[in-house]
C-alpha cells in the first residue's frame, strides 16, 4: 500500500495492485471563489498542486469521488479527467452529475455493500459532514473501506466529523490504516457554525477507538475555510504522546505500508 497526499482531500492510494485517485481537485491556486462566510476570504485553492496533473493521473486505474463539493471534484478535474476513466460515486444524484459532464464509466456504490474491483474489495460507509442542521445542508458524503488479502485494511473516512458511525465503522472493519480529513474546516456566521470535518479532538477520538492503527490526516491548509493548521495538530499529537500513531503529511508526501 502506498498513500500519497496531493493537496486538500486529493490523494492517490496504491492498493492491491490498483491505483486509486481520491477526490480530485486540479485547479491552479486561486482559480475559484472562497467558501464563505469564513475567517479568510482567499480565493481557492490557496496553495498550488505539488506536481502536474499528468503526474497525478499516471497509472490511475479508478477515481473515487466521496461527494461532489468543489474542493473534492472541481471544474479543472471535470475537464481534465479522461471521460472513460472508471469512477466510483456514492449515489445516483452524484452519478447523474458526472454523466451530464460526459463521464461514461461510473459505478454507484451502496452503503455496506462490497464491490470487487480487480481483486480489491471497496465498501461504502457513511459519514456526517458537520453537526445538526449544518450536516443536513452539506448533504450526503461517503467513506470507503479497502480490503485485500495481501494488504492491511484501509479506512478512508472522507468528509466527516467524529460520531457514532465512525466508531461503528472502526469496530466492524478493524482498519489498520485510517485516513481522516482533519482541517476542522468551518463557516463563521455570528460566530462559528461548527466544524464540517474533524478537528484535533475528533482525531484523538479516532485514535482512542483504534489505538493500534496508523492514522494519516489529510484535507489541511488548502482551502480558505480551514480551521486547524498542521503545526497546531502536530503540537497536539506530541502533547498527547501519539506522534508515532498520527501522521500529518505535507502536500506531495507519501507513505508505504
UniProtKB/TrEMBL annotation:
<feature type="domain" description="Metallo-beta-lactamase">
    <location>
        <begin position="20"/>
        <end position="220"/>
    </location>
</feature>
<dbReference type="InterPro" id="IPR036866">
    <property type="entry name" value="RibonucZ/Hydroxyglut_hydro"/>
</dbReference>
<protein>
    <submittedName>
        <fullName>MBL fold metallo-hydrolase</fullName>
    </submittedName>
</protein>
<dbReference type="InterPro" id="IPR050114">
    <property type="entry name" value="UPF0173_UPF0282_UlaG_hydrolase"/>
</dbReference>
<dbReference type="InterPro" id="IPR001279">
    <property type="entry name" value="Metallo-B-lactamas"/>
</dbReference>
<keyword id="KW-0378">Hydrolase</keyword>
<dbReference type="Pfam" id="PF12706">
    <property type="entry name" value="Lactamase_B_2"/>
</dbReference>
Amino acid at each position: 500500500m502506498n498513500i500519497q497526499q496531493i493537496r486538500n482531500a486529493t490523494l492517490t492510494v496504491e492498493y492491491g495492485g490498483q491505483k486509486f485517485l481520491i477526490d480530485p481537485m486540479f485547479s491552479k491556486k486561486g482559480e475559484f471563489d472562497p467558501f464563505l462566510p469564513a475567517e479568510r476570504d482567499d480565493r481557492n485553492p490557496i496553495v498550488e498542486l505539488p506536481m502536474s496533473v499528468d503526474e497525478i493521473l499516471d497509472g490511475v486505474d479508478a477515481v473515487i469521488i466521496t461527494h461532489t463539493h468543489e474542493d473534492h471534484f472541481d471544474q479543472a478535474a471535470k475537464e481534465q479527467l479522461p471521460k472513460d476513466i472508471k469512477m466510483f460515486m456514492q449515489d445516483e444524484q452524484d452519478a447523474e452529475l458526472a454523466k451530464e459532464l460526459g463521464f461514461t464509466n461510473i459505478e454507484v456504490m451502496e452503503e455496506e455493500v462490497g464491490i470487487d474491483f480487480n481483486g480489491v474489495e471497496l465498501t461504502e460507509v457513511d459519514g456526517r459532514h458537520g453537526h445538526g442542521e449544518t450536516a443536513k445542508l452539506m448533504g450526503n458524503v461517503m467513506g470507503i473501506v479497502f480490503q485485500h488479502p495481501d494488504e492491511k485494511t484501509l479506512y478512508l473516512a472522507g468528509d466527516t466529523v467524529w460520531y457514532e458511525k465512525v466508531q461503528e465503522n472502526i469496530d466492524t472493519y478493524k482498519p489498520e490504516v485510517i485516513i481522516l480529513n482533519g482541517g476542522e474546516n468551518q463557516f463563521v456566521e455570528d460566530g462559528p457554525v461548527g466544524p464540517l470535518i474533524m478537528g484535533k479532538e475528533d482525531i484523538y477520538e479516532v485514535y482512542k477507538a483504534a489505538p493500534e492503527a496508523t492514522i494519516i490526516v489529510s484535507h489541511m491548509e488548502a482551502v480558505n475555510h480551514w480551521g486547524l493548521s498542521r503545526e497546531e495538530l502536530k503540537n497536539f499529537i506530541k502533547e498527547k504522546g501519539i506522534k508515532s500513531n498520527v501522521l500529518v503529511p505535507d502536500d506531495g508526501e507519501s507513505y508505504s505500508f
